[in-house]
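dumping this here before i forget
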Amino acid sequence: MLAALVERRSTGEPLAWITGSTRFCGRSVSVAAGVYVPRWQSEPLAGRAAELLPPHGRAIDLGTGSGAIAGVLADRRPGASVLGTESDPVAAACARNNGVTVAEGDLFDGVPASWKGTVDLIVAVLPYVPTDEIEYLPRDVRNFEPPTALDGGVDGLAIVRRAATESRQWLRVGGHVLFEVGGDQPGILVPILEWSPFASVRVISDADGDARAVEAVAVE
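structure:
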């Protein structure tokens, strides 16, 4: 048994797939084979999202994957309504197994129309790796994890760009949006958000000073 597990890991298969779970923000998250593994680098984003979500507010976790961030929001704001969206049925099933309510579809396609203009928070860890940089990712990521959870197109923002422009119609005035990004991508995303329209747009950096996310507030 142990030898078989070691052999699987030696091929580069993600440890979370082998053990069936990982830790995220102090919580155990089940991760089925074929589902994007939540990263510790996203934990500050989840924490910030929980801070911004009112105790009885509404939140959407776009591209919820295993439901890691949605689970954090539900734990820390038990009185809030938290909805994950996911286009991959395998990931959607995994998120549901983690107790997340999931709307299946592309971005906002599965969200109830009654939520338009009422959402307090949208948080998203969508694919943002530029296509020509996929080959430089670690072997276990590159060879095993689903490309649809990684590949963000030429500049890495093909899906994020759509989500940014569509988010405004779902948020109430004063609602927040949080997108995980990397590298020089904030320079592209910030003006898109300002045009959408959002205000108080700011770039969030990690402990190393690298850009990690963009936060903005919906305005009239």
